[in-house]
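User: Hello! I'm new to structural biology and keep hearing that structure can be predicted from sequence alone. Could you demonstrate with OLC1v1005094C2? Please show me the input and the output so I can see what each looks like.

Assistant: Of course. The first part below is the input, the amino acid sequence of OLC1v1005094C2. The second part is the output, the predicted structure written as tokens.
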Amino acid sequence: MADPQRFPPPQSGNNKNSLLSPTSSRSVTETVNGSHKFVIQGYSLAKGMGIGKHIASDNFTVGGYQWAIYFYPDGKNPEDNSTYVSVFIALASEGTDVRALFELTLMDQSGKGKHKVHSHFDRSLDSGPYTLKYRGSMWGYKRFFRRAMLETSDYLKDDCLKINCTVGVVVSAIDCSRLHSIQVPDSDIGAQFGALLENMDGSDVIFNVCGETFHSHKLVLAARSPVFRSEFFESSEGSNQEIVISDMEPSVFKAMLHFIYRDSLVEDELVASSSTSDPSEFDSLTAKLLAAADRYNLTRLKTVCESHLCKEISVNSVAQILALAEKYHATELKAVCLRFAAENLAAVMRSDGFEYLKENCPSLQSEILKTVAGCEEDCSSGGGKSRSVWAQLSDGGDTNGRRVRQRT
């Protein structure tokens, strides 16, 4: 007879190497909710069908179970002698001890919103949710509404009743998602589309921009720009394999394509363009991209450009940036420029840019003055915390000796 196997005794609890990491779990109990609208047309014809007899809605599914609304025009309870109408929610599929919350609403059809609501939701229940033991179990009201009152109320209109029902089936489950997490990497769709642009795989259109060519994809451009979509798929020119653009710089078109594919701009290029020695805002890459965004209805690109130009607003540049905003329908940027110009009116009027406005955009001058009036109202309501813009203007004299408030 073989010797019995001998197993080593369990390690002492003092041995730290034998300890297991603690585990945990979490049970979450909540309701799965669903609603159904039941319209009862021809109420007067349903009357007289008999006490205890009902009209049923279509079955509807909530929480994996089938449900139905039962309407008793002559009442469910014989003792009430048809004095009341009855409404119930019934479990219409197989189920045992199904726990649920319910809400029944008789709709006010006058538009006053005075609905008759019986609800388990949003209130404490002494015995918890209602339990339906088996198929055919019901919850509701034998005396839902007195019939004589119902027939003269706003709940009945054109011989029609409307009943809304909400069922919340109680379910319990072990919740994993809140105890463990899987890190989702940042989206790389921009990098993938950018690679598509760089390697030119599947390109089906070539842009010739002042002699420089760019291979692209009609579907990508059409998805991003309604102008390209119309050009490619709604006009006779859509079959062209090469499109010539002679009124845009290649660097601007390249930056626009970069944004279309990657949904971002090369920040270094924008910073470099804004730090050039050329004082004209019209010649910056950002301004030219704003024009391209307006031309091709690239709303997000336009907003990005507006945001960058907003940071460049100063006494000397605000007039030019305002003219750009007006020309390319940049409404948010225009509002910021008008406000800044109004708050620093005296200094702005002495700038070279203001002379440009006088000669080329006279209508913007009147808009500035209208904004001034609004600023004056703000100053008055603010208890005189900021200096009146009209006081700035009436100062005359040189503005170099005082600090000008610059808000962006």
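User: So the tokens describe the shape?

Assistant: Right, they're a compact way of writing down the 3D structure. Reading them back into a model, for example: The chain has three domains: 27-174, 195-312, 313-408.
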